[in-house]
Amino acid sequence: MLIPFFYTLREGGMKTSITELLTLLEAMKLGVAGTNVDDFYFLARAALVKDESQLDRFDRIFAAYFKGIEDTFGDMFEDLPEEWLRHQAELVLSEEERAQIEALGGFEELMKALRERLEEQDDRHEGGSKWIGTAGTSPFGAYGYNPEGVRIGQQGSRNRSAVKVWDKREYRNLDDSVELGTRNIKVALRRLRKFAREGAADQLDLEDTIDKTARNAGLLDIRMVPERHNAVKVLLCLDIGGSMDDHVRVCEELFSAASSEFKHLEYFYFHNFVYESLWKDNRRRHAERIPTLDITHKYGADYKLIFVGDATMSPYEIVYAGGSVEHWNDEPGAVWIKRLLNTYHKAIWLNPEPKNRWDYTPSIKLTRELMDERMFPLTITGLDDGIKALH
Amino acid sequence: MADTRFTGTSTYVATEDLMIAVNAAVTLQRPILIKGEPGTGKTQLAMEVAGSLGKPLFEWHIKSTTKAQQGLYEYDAVARLRDSQLGDDRVHDIANYIQHGKIWEAFASDDQPVLLIDEIDKADIEFPNDLLQELDRMEFYVYETRQLISARHRPIIVITSNNEKELPDAFLRRCFFHYIKFPDQDTMAEIVDVHFPGLKKTLLREALNAFYKVRDVPGLKKKPSTSELLDWIKLLLAEDIPVEALRAKDNRTAIPPLYGALLKNEQDVHLFERLVFLDRRAGQQ
Fold this sequence. Notes:
The complex is a heterodimer of chains A (391) and B (285). Chain A is α/β, with parallel strands linked by helices and 391 residues long. Chain A is built from 19 helices and 9 strands. In chain B, the strands form 3 sheets. Chain B has a 5-stranded parallel β-sheet. Chain B has a two-stranded antiparallel sheet with strand order 3-4.
């Protein structure tokens, strides 16, 4: 029993395992939940979902499954284009957009229309969900409205008998389909660890104790050493704003993973490309700039340098003086990156753009050349390769 | 089974989904992992479960330097070396230098205990993996004395996490999971009632309204949580703030008294004051 439900969950993108299914069945056998469907829902949730970002997905699948329309839903969240989903965070509408919604009859009406359209689409042919995603004139695609965010299917239906708790979808904004989890990033960053003993001596150094005790004619001479700590030093330079907005989430994850993993982590921001100054606080980027030369003087050559940026810009911004989009730069960015690379021999560039698009962007090619091909995609494997290159 | 069901206590309001999750963990003797916003009573849960089921509670608070081994036992080699120099008799039995950790204590308990592993995400990223076997089989091996320590009664294990680090999948598979969501206004009224019985209905309603309004302010770094609300109400009572002070005539000019108890972040306080100021000015025009 429940096996079709289990497979529906997996098809819907949940990482539920057999162990968890067995746990659920065992709990049901022992009568943890009564015969009540609400209880069953709570029990299934506690046993099968292990991450709050998956709760919303679970609620949707549960609702869909126990209404017997699993096909409609299974297809829906698999086929939606990723870029389209990503706009979930950008649901702040401008004045004119709001006016357009009003023209459609307000938010409720818009949702109703969207739901109808999705249903219609499903009736017609497979893979039709792209139709909404790519149609530039469709009010839904254009505003980045996400059917995940606005909940299609149950809202308007009057059939509220059995399915209700999960229909509220209280975990809505916790859902995020991020590829890299911070855990994965941290595990990748662990490769960069370089252990050194420093700090308070609180571990027994057995060998030294035996040695010293023997020299001491058998009179105990206890030797202690400090615990081993990660002593690797990292300079992280992050591109911020503009085309990087799409990648903010993954960069934040990388940043949070890095800041908890490395004790000696210094970070700086730049926009599009590095020039004569960088900054640490984005809100005061114009007031508090740090000259790039000061950075190379302050942080020694034993630091490892990691750039994070999409390197997507006009090539002029790299090769010409005055090419920067924000200010007048006396010397081109290419000169500045050479200076940095002269100081820090261990350096890589992590690029959140998918690798297959790199060749089509001249500025990425240019940056790769400047970095001596040490550019890696910002994925787990890319990060792994990059860390190897840093050794 | 009726006697081992957790149904909330006189000092703790448990929602139905939480009760089911806890009871599933108790019945199947698996650990339960509790996540949620800070201040929603994650740690409190273990104490209440122990209290309501009448079981002893062992608390293991995790810090960034905590090692999995410390929960099992520690061997104090330095003390033994020292004793050997002083000719102490204890030195002949290595067991004298084995210090029991919280997990060992819980395993050795006469009654089925409740073991709280608090803030597991604070420790090193490999920490949960190091405990897989111990939590699964409820036994571990002491190399120094060549003993196998098995739990006399499988403890009810409550694990809390603040989401600072993600936990490994293998670990998660072995647990039940519950995310304590922020209570809605009705549940919150129940919670407050449990802590401050006899609080005037009007004061409670106004306080909750003001509280949820503060929570709704966009852009707050740290939204006030249940524990902050309880502190705030305690302050309101201590200062004898009249109900009228909470109920602003004009919604826009509302600034709750003693809001320092609700907002703990300097930037948040600043943001909040600025918003109120802007609203007031808009109201005057």
